[in-house]
Design goal:
Oligomer: homodimer
Distance between the termini of chain A: 26 Å
CATH class of the largest domain in chain A: Alpha Beta
Helix content of chain A: 40-55%
Structural class of chain A: alpha/beta
Largest sheet of chain A: 7 strands, parallel
Order of helices and strands of chain A: HEHEHEHEEEHEHHHH
Number of strands of chain A: 7
CATH superfamily of the largest domain in chain A: SPOUT methyltransferase, trefoil knot domain
CATH topology of the largest domain in chain A: Alpha/beta knot
Number of helices of chain A: 9
Largest interface: A-B, 56 and 56 residues
Strand content of chain A: 5-15%
Number of domains of chain A: 2
């Protein structure tokens, strides 16, 4: 038994890491409202989606709103793409099926799309939706069926429903079963432990040592996790 | 056969009406951010939740953001309550089970709560959560389990997940089966038809006549519905 108990925040980080997944990823194309993007990052992080792809298109990537993200971007792998074509190539190279959100009568309801496949869910601009390139490349087009006068959902709401449907409904249980390979976990662990040291040189060294022999993940509770 | 075809917007209104439900209702206590409340109303309207309860508490009810609600409040029945005690009494009188959101280790995961019961889902203030009175009155306490560092969800996201889980996951299909009694439908129809006349005296009279013998609901599509 090591004389030094691993710090609680590392045990917690291991629990988060164990639940991380890359099977589902989200793509935001040209989202206008920084509040929306920030909210999407926060939701993805909360539910264990590790990768988020942001396609900037014509507009510069908007600033994230720290009051909304609560620092979620520190724990995510953000992929920036200049345009849809390069994003599509990158996602295909990573083996993702492309599921493109579209408000169209012949799009498939989200919950009818298979959940146990590696898939990227593409959510378009708040006003104009996804660009043509995505529709041409799509393996599937999906919508979230509604029944009210209001036909369109807020972007951050639509993204959250996609994540919930893919992560929670799929498991019919709490998110928690990740799919990262050990090498992927090791890379994230190195980065996260450094972040968790909050700039302290002593902690950075100590945590790097722990990273060589990481603690076992232990169940954590949301209220606690938000305090890291 | 009537010589005058019912206007398309009334056929659409009947489809929305047929999908309306009161089995699930949402309660927002003391929400601070008008953007959040507006987004929640839009989501509820989109998924066919007819009643939303707003408990103002100490703060004045915030203004709705029309850019976010897209006028959703015109189609909803909003119930304003001065405090939790009167809201609890009103909900109990309407036969609602009280499911109170709480970030607590012993709260039940949302998806484990029964879906086929008449229940009000109470979502507290962004910072402090629900007030004591709700916890004392709760028939169940729920949380939405997460697995990331970020333990808390944005309020409008949490509300949307509750609605989606109760409406879409319950049916495992599109929302669309409402539960309103004919008298409830008639009351809403009168109000909605008046709204749909957009202030025209002639249309108001014509639509009131249609309300006596309403058209059959016809499947509509979200993109169209948002244009009403």
């Amino acid at each position: 038994m090591r004389p030094d108990q691993p710090p609680r925040r590392l045990i917690r980080a291991e629990a988060v890491l164990a639940a991380r997944q890359r099977q589902t990823t989200l793509v935001l194309e040209n989202a206008i409202d920084p509040h929306n993007i920030s909210a999407v990052l926060r939701t993805c992080e909360a539910f264990g989606i590790q990768d988020v792809h942001v396609v900037a298109g014509d507009t510069a990537p908007p600033d994230l709103n720290p009051a909304v993200t609560l620092g979620a971007e520190r724990w995510l792998t953000l992929h920036h793409h200049d345009d849809a074509v390069s994003a599509i190539a990158a996602l295909r190279a990573r083996g993702y099926r492309l599921c493109v959100g579209q408000l169209a009568t012949d799009a498939t309801p989200l919950f009818d799309l298979p959940r146990d496949v590696r898939a990227a869910y593409v959510i378009g601009n708040e006003r104009t939706g996804v660009s043509r390139a995505w529709l041409d490349a799509a393996d599937a087009r999906f919508l979230i069926p509604t029944s009210g006068f209001t036909g369109s959902l807020n972007l951050s709401v639509a993204a959250a429903l996609v994540v919930y449907d893919r992560v929670c409904v799929r498991a019919a249980t709490a998110p928690g079963t990740g799919d990262l390979a050990d090498t992927e976990k090791a890379a994230l662990r190195t980065a996260w432990y450094r972040t968790l040291a909050h700039g302290s040189a002593a902690l950075t060294r100590a945590f790097a040592a722990h990273a060589q022999d990481p603690p076992a993940p232990a169940p954590t509770f949301p209220v606690d996790r938000s305090k890291t």
